[in-house]
Amino acid sequence: MIELKPIRTEADYEAALGEVERLWGAPNGTPEGDRLDILATLIDAYEAKHHPMDPPDPVEAIRFRMEQQGLTRKDLEPIFGTRNRTSEILNRRRSLSLEMIRQLHDRLGISADVLIRPSRL
C-alpha cells in the first residue's frame, strides 16, 4: 500500500496507477473505496498537468459518433442539407454552421464545445 501524497513524478504516477488497479472495484463508503476515490483525484490532477489531451477535432468527433452509431454519410444529409455539403464538411472543405452545430449536438449528442472548434486541415 503506497502512502497517499501528491503525485509529483512519473514514478509516483506509476505507483498510484498500480494501487488503483489493486483497489479497483472496492465498494463505496469503505476505507478501500475512499482510498480509490482519493487516488483517482490525485491521478486526474497529475494527468491534467503532465499528460493533457487536446479536445477532438470537430470532424473527428462526427466520424467517431458515426462509427459508434453505425451512421452513414447519407444519415447526416438531413443535418447538413445535401450530399455534396456533407462531403465538403467531412473532407474539411466547409465549416460547420451554427445550425449544423445545434443539430449535431441535439441529434447525435456531440458536445457543442467540440463542434465550435476550428477543424484541423
From TrEMBL:
HTH cro/C1-type domain location: 62-115
Spell out the PROSITE patterns in the cross-references.
Answer: HTH_CROC1
SUPFAM superfamilies documented for this protein: lambda repressor-like DNA-binding domains
The protein's superkingdom reads Bacteria
Q: Which SMART domains match?
A: HTH_XRE
Task: State the Gene3D superfamilies in the record.
Answer: lambda repressor-like DNA-binding domains
* MF terms in GO: core promoter sequence-specific DNA binding
The organism's lineage is: Bacteria, Pseudomonadati, Pseudomonadota, Alphaproteobacteria, Hyphomicrobiales
Native source organism of the sequence:
Segnochrobactrum spirostomi
Record-linked InterPro entries: Antitox_HigA (IPR039060), Cro/C1-type_HTH (IPR001387), Lambda_DNA-bd_dom_sf (IPR010982)
From the record, give the transmembrane residue ranges: none
What is the name of the protein in this document? Transcriptional regulator
Its GO biological process annotations read:
regulation of DNA-templated transcription
